[in-house]
Structures are given as structure tokens and as C-alpha cells.
Design goal:
alpha/beta; 8 strands; binds S-adenosylmethionine; globular; about 45% helix; Rossmann fold
Length: about 260
């Protein structure tokens, strides 16, 4: 596992719990339950296989595509497209616990790195994606510009973005700021990313039952071992806030596929 140019500074405690500590606990739970639990557990933050298939198709990911996954978490989505389409992913992720978990679960190249200061040369990849990350970053245009920089003109950039559907949210998980759809489109245009495809996660098929059951089982093992730990409790509270915002229609997951202009 390589150490990149920079890691996220001043990460709120609850985000570190969710994306670092719990990520590592997840890898340990998978080790107990078996490898067939790895993909469902590691994709929890990014929707169903149908969502990843849709994004892969709209981005034109095929065998041999060099894909940067920025904010890769524990690496489930990257591993899914590697297995399904023969994509060659590289993971960048600021949380060391998540990086260690990704290496243990899937063994693709991983760099500990903040997506605002990616340690790669310009145009080092054929395509780049970032799933569920933009809302954790304050300077969204600077973050998107790093993805644009990572691919050549015409190269594909994909995103899963949680967008607010109202002007103001009643509550917000610590460290998150959710753009509206119009704000998202404005950010993309401002950094030179042409929007090609946009679809709501809710309009795509849900994950198969056995996929959800495997992810649930991993969460149960993590809870069995750590529910008394305040880091687990803070991470759980973050997740519950997001789930209730989506359930109440105040927030929606949106998949977008873009091309670098020029
Ligand atoms: C909801 S998780 C999604 C993980 C993964 N992309 C997935 O879909 O399963 C958000 C991820 O963004 C990462 N993250 C937070 N701030 C970041 C930044 N500045 N640059 C890159 N990643 C960041 C977190 O560490 C976490 O792994």
C-alpha cells in the first residue's frame, strides 16, 4: 500500500469512525464469514450491482480500462467492475484503515491519498470515478478538477452524488454538504466535464436479496463485536441520518457520467 501526497486534514471524528475504523472492522468480519461476503459488504455505500453496471456501461468501461477510483472506501465497486468487466482499477483513499481493508479484501493497487491532491501525473488513467464522495468535500470544483485532470480529453468521469432535493436539510451528517442537482451540474460545467448521462439510483433495480443478506450479515458481526464502542455508535448515527434523509425524499442518489471536454 503506497502513501500518497497528502491525506484528508481535520477529518470530523464521526467520518473517521465510519470510513476508517468501521472499514477495518468490516474486513475482519468478512474474514470470519467468507470471501463471498466481501463484495456486498464493500459496496454498501454505493448502491446495487445494477447501479455499477449502469455506470460502467455509460462510461464505456471494458477489459483493460485503467480506472481511477477516488475515495474508494474498502474497494467494493472497483473490485466489482474488475471482476465483471476486466477493468484495471487503482484505488485512492485518504483513510488508512479503509486502504488496509481494501488490500486485504481485493488486493488491487491502493494509494493513501486525498482526492484534492491526487499523487498521479496528468492523464494517468483512461477513466476515473468517485462514488459517494463529493458530499464529503467542501471544495467540490477542486475535487472534480482532480478527476478531470486524471483522464485525457474525451475520457470518462463517473460519479455517484447524494443531492439534496430541498433548499435546506433539517439535519446533516457531520462533515457532509450535499449539493442540489443544479449546483452539481454547475460544478461539472465549470471544471470542463460534459454531462452525458444522469439517472436516479432509485430508478434502478435494487440489489438482489442474497447480496443484501450477505451485507447485513457482515454488519451484524461488526455490531456483535463493537456495538458497545462509541466509534461504532457515531458511525451508526451518521448512516442513520443519511438513510432517513433519503427515505423522507430530502436527498437522492444520482449517478452521472461525463466526458472530459476538449
Ligand atoms: C460513502 S464512502 C464511499 C466509499 C466508496 N466510494 C464506495 O462507494 O463504496 C465515502 C468515502 O469518501 C472518502 N473521502 C472523504 N473525503 C475524501 C477526500 N477528500 N478525498 C477522497 N476521498 C475522500 C471517505 O474516506 C470514504 O471512504
Amino acid at each position: 500500500m503506497e502513501q500518497g501526497a497528502g491525506t484528508a486534514e481535520e477529518t470530523p471524528e464521526a467520518m473517521a469512525d465510519e470510513f476508517d475504523t468501521v472499514a477495518w472492522w468490516t474486513a475482519r468480519a468478512v474474514a470470519e464469514l467468507g470471501d463471498d461476503h466481501a463484495l456486498p459488504a464493500a459496496c454498501r455505500g454505493s448502491g446495487s450491482p445494477a447501479a455499477l453496471d449502469r455506470l460502467a456501461a455509460s462510461m464505456g468501461l471494458t477489459a483493460g480500462t485503467r480506472l481511477l477510483d477516488s475515495g474508494a472506501g474498502v474497494g467494493g465497486p472497483a473490485a466489482y467492475v474488475a471482476r465483471t468487466y476486466g477493468v484495471r482499477p487503482t484505488l485512492a483513499e485518504p483513510m488508512e484503515g479503509a486502504c488496509r481493508a481494501a488490500r486485504r479484501l481485493f488486493d488491487h493497487p491502493v494509494v493513501v491519498a486525498d482526492g484534492l491532491t491526487l499523487p498521479f501525473p496528468d492523464q494517468a488513467f483512461d477513466a476515473a470515478w468517485s462514488l459517494g464522495v463529493l458530499c464529503t468535500v467542501e471544495d467540490k470544483r477542486a475535487y472534480l478538477d482532480q478527476l478531470r485532470r486524471a483522464v485525457p480529453p474525451g475520457g470518462a468521469v463517473g460519479l455517484l452524488v447524494y443531492c439534496r432535493t430541498v433548499d435546506e436539510l433539517p439535519e446533516q451528517p457531520e462533515g457532509n454538504s450535499f449539493p442540489s442537482r443544479d449546483e452539481l451540474r454547475g460544478h461539472l460545467a465549470a471544471v470542463g466535464l460534459d454531462l452525458l448521462d444522469e439517472v436516479d439510483l432509485a430508478d434502478l433495480p435494487a440489489a438482489p436479496d442474497d447480496w443484501d443478506a450477505a451485507a447485513d450479515r457482515v454488519e451484524e458481526v461488526v455490531a456483535r463485536d463493537h456495538a458497545g464502542d462509541e466509534r461504532w455508535q457515531r458511525a451508526r448515527a451518521q448512516q442513520e441520518t443519511i438513510v432517513s434523509l433519503i427515505r423522507d425524499g430530502l436527498m437522492a442518489g444520482v449517478l452521472v457520467s461525463c466526458r472530459r471536454a476538449g
